[in-house]
Amino acid sequence: MTPAVASSPAIPMVKFWRKPLDLEEQVVPKGIVHLIVERCKECEFCIEFCPKDVLRMSERFNRKGYRFPEVVPGKEGDCIACRHCEDICPDLCIFIEEVKR
Q1: Tens-place pLDDT, residues 2-55
Q2: Tell me: the pLDDT tens digits for 60-79?
Q3: Residue 52 belongs to what domain range?
Q4: Is residue 85 part of a domain?
Q5: Which of 19, 40, 45, 56 would give a disulfide with 88, using CB separation of 3.0 to 4.6 Å?
Q6: Which of 99, 31, 35 is closest to 66 using CA atoms?
Q7: What is the pTM of this model?
Q8: Residue 51 placed within a domain
Q9: Can you spell out the DSSP letters for 55-92?
Q10: Bridge-partner residues for 32, per DSSP?
Q11: Residue 15 lies in a domain
C-alpha cells in the first residue's frame, strides 16, 4: 500500500509592498571569464551551474584531449561575476575578473 500524496495548491505570486531604500544605488557586477585551458578536464560543471548561460563547450581540444568551455559568442557582457564557476571547478581552471563600470 502506497502512502497518499497530498497535492499542494499553486503558490501565489507575492507582491512586495515596499522596495529597498538603496535600490537605485545597486549595480549588478560584470565579469570577464578567464580559463586555463590545459587544466580543464571537460567536467562541464561551470557550464551547468552558470546562472546566465554564458558558457558552452568548445569544439576544440586541449593537449590532454579534453574539450574546454568557452564564452558563447554575443554573451561576453552577460557575466555577472557570481563566481559559481570558480567555486565548482574541481581543477581550478576558470576564474572571473570583475570589471568596474
Answers
A1: 545 555 556 666 666 777 788 788 888 999 999 999 999 999 999 999 999 999
A2: 999 999 999 999 999 999 99
A3: 27-99
A4: yes
A5: 45
A6: 35
A7: 0.71
A8: yes
A9: EEEEEEE-TTS-EEEEEPTT-TT------HHHHH-TT-
A10: 97
A11: no
